[in-house]
Design a protein that fits this description.
Blueprint lengths: L3 E3 L12 H5 L10 E6 L4 E5 H17 L7 E5 L5 H11 L3 E4 L6 H11 L3 E4 L11 E3 H7 L15 E7 L7 E6 L2 H4 L1 H8 L6 E4 L6 H14 L2 E5 L8 H7 L4 E4 L1 H9 L11 E4 L6 H10 L5 E7 L3 E5 L13 E2 L4 E6 L2 E2 L5 E7 L8 E2 L3 H6 L1 E2 L2 E10 L5 E6 L4 E3 L2 E3 L1 H7 L8 E10 L2 E9 L6 H9 L10 E4 L13 H6 L6
Parallel strand pairs: 2-11, 4-5, 4-6, 6-7, 10-11, 10-12, 12-13, 13-14, 27-28
Antiparallel strand pairs: 1-17, 2-3, 8-9, 9-20, 14-15, 15-16, 17-18, 17-19, 19-22, 21-22, 22-23, 24-25, 26-27
Length: about 500
């Protein structure tokens, strides 16, 4: 029996369509309901649905008044504030193409994006790194737009470009992933296939506003059903999350696995009476964290999801379909997923590459300016994820790891080639290789292994990296080796590097 999941296609996206209009469709009927609460230790900044819609469509008007036209690209260099989702949806509402980016990126990294995209302007917080010499819309400008008359939604083909996000490419060059307006329509398959999402829910997401995991799971999905989104304010300590969950009656909690681990480090019990369950994505959830959370919360589950920038999440466990024996879960109803090799679909119980059918409404349009790279990710009508798994007879999928050397840094996929390229020219270094290393249970760090005549001061190496790489891409440790290991073909063996990391007491 083939390792193929296909229980019929999801309902087609209506046309004409606009992503932001879909997200805010419930705003008028829930005008006075709290759409968003930004939580600090002692207070909450609350936004009703009416206020949110006004701010989004007022921003759309303001951007058009500045002369921007549908199809123009706007690079987003904003911090961890409510400015981020308002500007993002405001741009999409009027047909502009926002490019959300992490505020941790360095000026050098942003300069490469600007060179590739040629954006019409940058939406920028002055405190966030960005190259000079490009038209800028500041956070003060954006705030002044919120009370302008509401723009009309720019409706159109659901397959047209809506936004672009960056992902670390396996070639070492970050890829600009283009998504259509229909991407938000496809996310409805997650509502029951992962969240168990209801209009009455209060979903607390532990991530920053400017992380795409937060933007989708923490904000747009709750808003699209009329639920309430809860986001910790910038600077709130992770140790304070259990208090916020209880104080604000969160019914759902979403975070990367590392957040769960840190929350459990200092406590054996968590009193969360309103919480139904947790949600995890970004990296593989360990069974140790899952068991510790269930014990600490008195039996509440964590439901895990697997996905990627090119297709968001499409395999998950859920209240209706809990995972068993460490599986990721099963493909969401409406998806067509197969495990394949070069000859086609493998058999149930056999390892293969996890593939998504090219007709999936959540699948990317392609990589911006990289037609060959886009074609390379498809074979025989299937998108190749690069991840391997095994499908069981019940349809659940076990994760079997990457088919390449991609690393995971706290939920962000990072190519070692990208890091190595950025570190080219390190003074005194004759050879360098980067990989992620599990330094203790459930904790992986990016580590750089290098050769040089003599060991180099780690602080100077880290300073060099900090000028060229976002914090989450930077090596957290440096290991000096007389020579780097290679395979029989003379190429660097990153797998061998992992075993050379010194065990620390």
């Amino acid at each position: 029996m083939q390792a193929l999941f296909d229980q019929g296609a999801f309902a087609p996206c209506p046309t004409p369509f606009n992503l932001a209009a879909h997200v805010l469709a419930a705003a008028d009927s829930h005008a006075d309901k709290i759409a968003l609460a930004v939580l600090s230790a002692t207070s909450a900044e609350e936004w009703s649905y009416a206020q949110l819609k006004q701010a989004v469509l007022g921003t759309g008007t303001g951007l058009l008044q500045r002369g921007y036209e549908p199809g123009d690209i706007l690079l987003m260099r904003l911090g961890n504030t409510v400015d981020f989702p308002i500007a993002y949806l405001g741009a999409i509402a009027v047909g502009l193409i926002p490019v959300p980016t992490s505020s941790m990126l360095t000026e050098a990294e942003v300069a490469k994006m600007i060179a590739q995209l040629s954006p019409r302007a940058v939406l920028r917080d002055p405190d966030v790194a960005c190259s000079a010499g490009i038209e800028t819309v500041t956070t003060a400008d954006l705030a002044a737009m919120r009370n302008l008359p509401q723009a009309a939604y720019e409706m159109g083909d659901p397959n047209r470009l809506a936004y672009i996000i960056y992902t670390s490419g396996t070639s070492g060059t970050p890829r600009a992933v283009m998504h259509a307006h229909r991407a938000i329509w496809a996310r409805q398959m997650m509502h029951q296939g992962w969240y168990g999402l209801q209009p009455t829910d209060r979903l607390l997401h532990a991530g920053a506003f400017n992380w795409t995991f937060t933007l989708g799971t923490g904000l747009m999905d709750p808003w699209s059903v009329g639920a309430t989104a809860l986001i910790p304010a910038e600077g709130v300590a992770m140790d304070h999350l259990p208090h916020l969950l209880k104080q604000h009656d969160a019914t759902l909690f979403a975070a990367a696995p590392g957040v769960y681990r840190k929350m459990l480090q200092s406590r054996d019990q968590l009193d969360l009476p309103a919480l139904r369950h947790g949600l995890a994505a970004g990296e593989k959830l360990s069974e140790a964290i899952r068991a510790a959370w269930t014990s600490a919360t008195g039996g509440k589950a964590i439901y895990e999801a697997y996905g990627m920038s090119e297709c968001s999440t499409f395999i998950s466990s859920s209240p209706d379909h809990p995972a068993t024996d460490g599986a990721l879960g099963q493909p969401q109803i409406g998806r067509r997923i197969a495990l394949r090799n070069e000859d086609g679909a493998v058999s149930i119980g056999e390892e293969g590459e996890i593939c998504v059918h090219e007709t999936d409404p959540g699948l990317m349009l392609g990589y911006f300016g990289a037609e060959d790279a886009t074609k390379a990710r498809f074979r025989d009508g299937w998108f190749l994820t690069g991840d391997h798994g095994v499908m069981r007879a019940d349809g659940q999928i076990e994760y079997a790891g990457r088919g390449d050397d991609m690393m995971n840094a706290g939920g962000y996929r990072v190519s070692p080639l990208e890091v190595e390229a950025a570190l080219t020219g390190l003074p005194g270094v004759t050879a360098l290789g980067v990989t992620d290393v599990e330094v203790k249970a459930d904790t992986k760090l990016i580590v750089a292994f290098y050769s040089s005549p003599e060991p180099i001061d780690k602080a100077s190496l880290s300073e060099f990296a900090s000028e060229r790489l976002a914090r989450y891409k930077q090596p957290r440790d440096w290991v000096h080796l007389p020579v780097l290991p290679t395979n029989p073909n003379g190429k660097l063996s990153r797998k061998a590097l992992k075993s050379l990391y010194p065990v620390k007491a």
